[in-house]
Amino acid sequence: MDQTGSGAAGLPDSADSRGLPGSADSTGLPGSAGSRGLPGSAGSTGLPGSAGSTGLPGSAPTIYDVARVAGVSIASVSRVLNGQRNPRPETKERVLAAVAELGFAPDGAARALSGQLREVVGVIVRRPWRLDEDEGEGLFADESESLQYPDLINRGIEAAAQRRGFDLLIRSVSITARDVSGRTVALARKSDGLILHDRVLEPADLDRLSRQLPIVTLAGYATPTTANVHGDNKAGMRDLARHLLRDHGYGSLAYLGGYADSPDSIERCEVLAQEAAQAGATLESGPGWQGQYFASGGAKVINRLLDAGRALPRAIVCANDQTALGVMSALHEHGVAVPGRVAVTGFDDIPMARHLAISLTTVRQPIREMGTTAFDMLYSMLNREAPPARDIVLPTELMRRESCGCADPGGTRRYRP
C-alpha cells in the first residue's frame, strides 16, 4: 500500500483533478457538468436519489453491475473491456465471466470511465504531532509510535481496499491545526474518494468538498452529501453507565474524555450525564478531565488531581481503553486500589484490555469492521450505487471484567503495565 505520514506522496497531481480547487479544469461545483457526489446530478456517486443509481429491477445491466458481480472496480472493468494497461489475468477472467453472466453489452461509458478513477482512496487521521514531555512519566514516552485505535481501523480499510484492487494514501493532520482543509484538498486531488477519521473538517468545509468527490466519515455525522460509519455510542455507554450505577451502586462518577470536539467523546459523555442524573449520582467532566484519547493523557489527569490533594470519584469512565490504561497505571503508582477504591472503565475493547493484571471493563466495538464498512460504503458511492443508509451504526457489547468490580472472568493471559 502507498502510505504517507505527515504528507501524501506517490501519485502526482494531474491535469484531470476532477474539479478540485486549483485544478486545471476546475469543475465539481453544484450544478457543474463535472460534479461528482451531488445528489441528483448526472455524475452523482450514488447517494440516495441520485440519477446514477443502478440495480433497479428490470433495468439493463450496466458496467456498475459487472463491477459488483466481478468484485472489482469499474475502472478495472473498463480496462478489460477496452484492452488497456494489461489487466491481471485473474481480473480479466472475473470481468469476462460477469459480462457473460449478466449479458452485458459494453458501450462508450466504459471507455469514458477508465480515465476518471485512479483506484486510490485517501484516508486522513487526526493525531497530536507530539505529546508533552511531562505527560508520559517515562512509561508512555513512545506511545505515539505504537499501534493506535485509528491504525486498527485502517487495517480494516486496507483489507477491504486490497480485495477491490485499490491503494491507500494515508495522511495525518494535527489535532491542534486550525485549518486542515488545504491539506485535505491536496490529498483529494490524488484520490477517488476520502475516508475521514473523527472530525477532520469543519462542517462547511466537509459540505463543500463532499460535493466534488465521495466522502465517508468515521465517528462523525452523516450529511446530505456524505456517509458515516460508527459504533453505537449511545447503546454502549448506556449499558456501561447502568452497570456502574445500578449493578454496582456507584454514586459518584467522572468522565475522562478524548478530544474536546470529538463527536464520539461528546456523545458518550452526554449519555453518561443523562444516566447519572436519572440515578441521582454526581458526574465530573470538562476541561480538567480530558486525556486526548492517550494513556499518557489519562495518567497526567490523575497525577495532577492526586498531587493537588483532590478526592477521586468512585468510578472513572474513560473515553477509550488507551486512556483507561494510563489511569490505571497512575492510580497504581499512587497506591490507589482498582477497583477497591476507584473503578475504571474504557471503551473500544482493544486487545490489551482483556490481558491486563486487572482486566478492563469496557465496551467492545467492531473496530476492524468499521474500517471495512467505511471502504465498502465509499466503493458503492464510486460505483454510483445507493448506499443502504447514510448513517451506518455498528453494534457494541458491554464487556464486564475486573476493573469495575466484577469477578475475574478467567482464562486470560495477564500483563501488568
List its salient traits.
417 residues; elongated; disordered C terminus; 13% strand; Rossmann fold; disordered N terminus
Helix content: 25-40%
Predict the CATH topology of the domain at 233-366 and 398-404. Answer: Rossmann fold
Instruction: Tell me the name of the CATH homologous superfamily of the domain at 233-366 and 398-404.
Output: Response regulator
What is the tally of beta strands?
12
Largest sheet: 6 strands, parallel
CATH architecture verdict of the domain at 233-366 and 398-404: 3-Layer(aba) Sandwich
CATH class of the domain at 233-366 and 398-404: Alpha Beta
Decide which structural class fits the backbone.
alpha/beta
H/E order of the elements? Answer: HHHHEHEHEHEEHEHEHEHEEHEE
Shape: elongated
Q: Report the β-strand fraction as a percent range.
A: 5-15%
Can you list the strand order of the major beta sheet?
2-1-3-4-5-11
Distance between the termini: 33 Å
Number of helices: 12
Oligomer state of the chains in this structure: single chain
Structure description:
A six-stranded parallel β-sheet has the order 2-1-3-4-5-11, sandwiched between helices. Strands 7-6-8-9 form a four-stranded parallel β-sheet. It has a two-stranded antiparallel sheet with strand order 10-12. It has a domain at 233-366 and 398-404: 3-Layer(aba) Sandwich (Rossmann fold), CATH 3.40.50. Helix 5 (149-164) links the parallel strand 1 (120-127) and strand 2. Helix 1 crosses helix 2, helix 2 crosses helix 4 (108-114) and helix 10 (295-307) packs parallel to helix 11. Helices cover 35% and strands 13% of the residues. It has helices at 63-70, 74-82, 89-102, 108-114, 149-164, 181-188, 203-210, 233-247, 263-279, 295-307, 321-333, 367-382, and strands at residues 120-127, 167-174, 193-197, 215-218, 227-231, 252-256, 282-284, 315-318, 343-345, 362-364, 391-394, 397-399. With 417 residues, it is an alpha/beta fold.
